[in-house]
């Protein structure tokens, strides 16, 4: 993989760091991990961006992430999802009631099955397709967040060297959002291991101005799926049935009579 050497310099948003040390530190930056359109490059910290690129490399790299097509997982026993990253097709099966949502999250088209019948009323269909899109936004973030540190609408800042609750030395980053997602008022802190460059912990703030997070949970038990790493351990609960697939029948996004 090609790349360039850059000096790690802080922006005005960097905190708890020594500018002299940063200016003398050279790090390898991959030249293929471009930020998504709409990423707040100007407002983000250069140190945080460098760390985000290291995370992408540790997780398998941009090329392998982009080449990953189908991902399936069980979200804490509540529902199963299958996501086609290439087309935006998502299949969601609720494990707690009779609900199946087949939605294209890019075009907001699809089909819904609930309580024994297909939902054809336009208002009901629109409601459940939107609900399915929101489920996918939430559930996929719990699984693939480390790949999304430079997503559209994200401002990424550097907090400083810190430790996880388990005492692992890490670099702490902060993510805030503008005009993106279902709840742009949220904020997250993520702890990136200085040894492995993997996200090892995150904290969730329901409102970015909150001083105390709603929760702090681990990111642990990384395993290889396809050509990328994914973590399933979130402390008291686990994401299960994770798989990266190269092929699935196209009808799985079209027919209700298939189960994940």
Question: What descriptors fit this protein?
Answer:
260 residues, alpha+beta, 2 domains, 7-stranded antiparallel beta sheet, 4 helices, disordered N terminus
| Strand and helix order | EHEHHEEEEEEHEEEEEEEEE
Share of helical residues:
10-25%
Largest sheet: 7 strands, antiparallel
The number of E-state strands comes to: 17
Please, how many helices?
4
Describe the structure.
The chain is of the alpha+beta class and 260 residues long. It folds into 2 domains: 154 residues, no CATH class; 90 residues. It is built from 4 helices and 17 strands. The strands form 4 sheets. A 7-stranded antiparallel β-sheet has the order 8-7-6-5-4-3-17, with helices on one face. A hairpin with a 5-residue loop joins strand 11 and strand 12.
SSE layout and pairing:
Blueprint (H helix, E strand, L loop, with lengths): L2 E5 L11 H6 L1 E5 L15 H13 L3 H6 L2 E6 L3 E6 L4 E6 L4 E6 L4 E6 L2 E2 L3 H23 L9 E10 L5 E9 L9 E7 L5 E7 L9 E4 L1 E6 L2 E7 L2 E2 L1 E6 L15
Antiparallel strand pairs: 1-2, 3-4, 3-17, 4-5, 5-6, 6-7, 7-8, 9-10, 10-11, 11-12, 12-13, 14-15, 15-16
In brief, what are we looking at here?
This protein is of the alpha+beta class and 260 residues long. Helices cover 18% and strands 38% of the residues.
